[in-house]
Every structure is written in structure tokens, then in C-alpha cells.
Request: fold
Amino acid sequence: MKALILFVLLMGGALPATPTAMVEIPAGEFIFGNAEFSTQSKPTASLPMFWIDRFETTNAGFAKIFPEHKFPNGADLHPATGMTWSEAAEFCKRSSKRLPSEAEWERAARGEMGLLYPWGDRPLKGKPHPFISGLVKRRVGYQKKDVSPYGAYGMAGSVWEWTASREGDKIIARGGLWNLHLDYEFSKTYEKILQAPDKGFSFLGFRCARSP
Amino acid sequence: MINRRNFIAQGWSALLIALQTWRPRKAAAEVDYFTGTEYVGKTRAGRYRDFYINYWKTMRRIDAERWTLQVGGLCEQPGSFRLEDLRALPQKTQTSRLKCVECWSAKAQWTGFHFSELERRVKPLPNATGALFHCGDEYLEFADLKSLRHPRSLFAYEMDGEPLTDEHGFPLRLVVPFKYGYKNPKAILKVEFVEEAQPGTWSRIGPYSTDGTILPGHDHPLDRGKIRRRIFGGEIRD
Reply:
């Protein structure tokens, strides 16, 4: 009995294991942003350790908390989109998580070395395929090369992602595809778009983060 | 062996080939095929350099006297409306930018009426999720009810304070500024309420989404010298 109590106490006092389906992002300084848009030649930031979802939130996952969320048959594992910023934040909150800040999102995407893309500094040889949908949705993690140094998928492609950070009255979203007529491009790890928090779009989803 | 006669003959041949194949690119893009004819179609000529005209097929100009808007499909009170009937509806004016999926965009002031006015009169059935637009150039496009009911969507019969020209979609066009131009059908003949979303003309033949929401990417605004700029998706407000 004593041994069992000791085991429980030890487990309770130990650092929590990485939550399921999340990746651990270690504490430290990293290159944040791009010199082109900064007064510093190598802008940096420092963050404590946190976790971030390995994949974007899926339709099936989102519908567990928002049952009114409708999606086409067979799209269970596609990234959920169309939600407002508040809905995304509420989902994370009810999952005992939160939206990542812009800095956290970037740190998770580019690692300590300040990579331009999650996989390195050069674009992939093949451009992202627009598929016939034009919205470039496939199951989360579909593009296996689009993976960050910490194992987070879809941070340069797939859909754009709400963050917790603001710029003026707009919310900063990160990491989706740029549409150039019939061509698509992966976004760089420091690129962003700004959207009004009350808007939902077919190209905009999210993933959650969590602190220890 | 090259003699004088061969040399001249070969020279003429080379010149003819060169004349057949050489085209000044800009001039070729600005040939005006339709002004003064009874037809209208795709053009970038003359004043349309500032607001390109795309049509699916070249079509005969629509006769205002004979045109009525047919509204049918899944609705309680199908009907037809003359242009003067539509002009009598509560009027709405807005300035918005038309963004083409080809990357250019252009801005105009549009006047017309909101979908709610039409909806009130024809009463779509509960199982209708959207409407198909049948156009004079045989173009077909779908719009869901949510987009049609959006406060920025508009059925337009005027552009910049003047009646729509044939080129810009006389007598009636749909303006949905948060969707690409191919979701803004022109020269509308018929609105048909339907139960299921379906791809329109371009979505059937190309990699264009049925949804048609403007995505983050590039824009080349014609009114700003086509200078490339980033856009963040959804309606372009400036």
C-alpha cells in the first residue's frame, strides 16, 4: 500500500508527459520575424517551454465541441475551417488548451535556427498541389515534408491558422498557402495574414497550444 | 546552290513567316472586336483596359425590352421581373472591388438591390440551399444562400452611376465582393433555387473551387498600375 501511495505521489509530482497529439517546444531564444520587417538584423525572442498540437484541429475534432459544425462526408480528418477567432479560442479553452501566440507559433514552425520553411531554408521542389477543390484541403498531415523541427505538420501549407496575437483590431493568422492564380506557394515561417476576429473563412483554421 | 532568284525567294518566305508569327503583344491584347456590333464578349480594349471584361462565350447583346428575370426552382412563388420592377425595389449602393482569379482586380460603385428583396417575393423553400444563375453567355454559377444573404452581396443594375453596359453584364449581375469574379455572374437570365451546391462553369473545367472565396495571395489592381500586392483573403476593402 505504501509503495502504491509513493508511486502516485511521485507521478503527481513529476513533470507531465507530452500531451497526446502535441509536440514539445523547448524553452529558449529564437529568430522571430524577418529582418526585412524589423529594426534588428536578426530579430529574436525568448519563450518558456510549451506544447503545440502536432496537427491542425480537424472537422471531427471540432464537431465534438461544436456539434453544429457541418462538413462534407469523408472530410472528418480535413482541417476544420470557417470558425471565428472566438470559436477557435473557445475550442482550445474547452480542451484545456489555448491558442498559441504568434511568437509561439513561429517558434514551433522554424525551430532554433530560424528556418525559412519548417523543413529548411529552400522551397520544396514541387509546388503545393491545388487539387480540384481550389482550397487545397486534404487530411491534416497529408504533406509529409511540411513538418517542423519539432514534428508539427502543415505549418507552411494546408490552411492558415488563427493565433492569439493581434495587430491593431485584426488577428494575426499564420502558416497557410498563398494563391497565385493557378499556382500555390507555401508561406514562409515568418509570414502572416491579418483578419477581423468575427470573420470565418474556408481557408482559415487553427491548432491549440498549452503551457506546463 | 544559291543564286539570286533563290536568295530572293527564300528572303520573301522568311519575311512572310516572320509577319505571320510576330505580334506586338500589347496591341494584340487590345483589339476591339465588339464595339459597334450586336455581339459582346471577352475584351481588354479601349476603356476596358481599366476593368477587364470576361465572358464565357461571345453572346448577342440583350434586348432590354424583351428581357425579364426568371426566378424559379425551389421557391413558393416563382415569377418573372422586368427591369423596371427590379429598379423599383429598395435601392442599395456600395463601392467594392471585383477580384478576378486571374490576379487582376478593379473597383467600382455598384447600385442595385439586396437579395432579401427578391427572397421576400419568391420565398425559397426550406430545402433550398442556394441558387443557380443562368446567364446570357451560357455561363452557369452557383451561390449559396449564406453568401447571397451577406450584407455586402448585391444584385447590380448600375455601375458608377450609369446603367450597366453590355460588357459589364447588362441588365443584371451579381456582386459578391468576397468571392472571385467567376462567382459574380453577369447578364443574368434566370435564378433557379436548388437543394445542393454544385460546381459552376469554371469549377467544372478548371481547378477553381465551387466555394470561390478569395484566398490569401497576390493582387494586381488595374487602377493602381497593376502593381503587385499581398492580399489576406476575403473582400479586398481598398
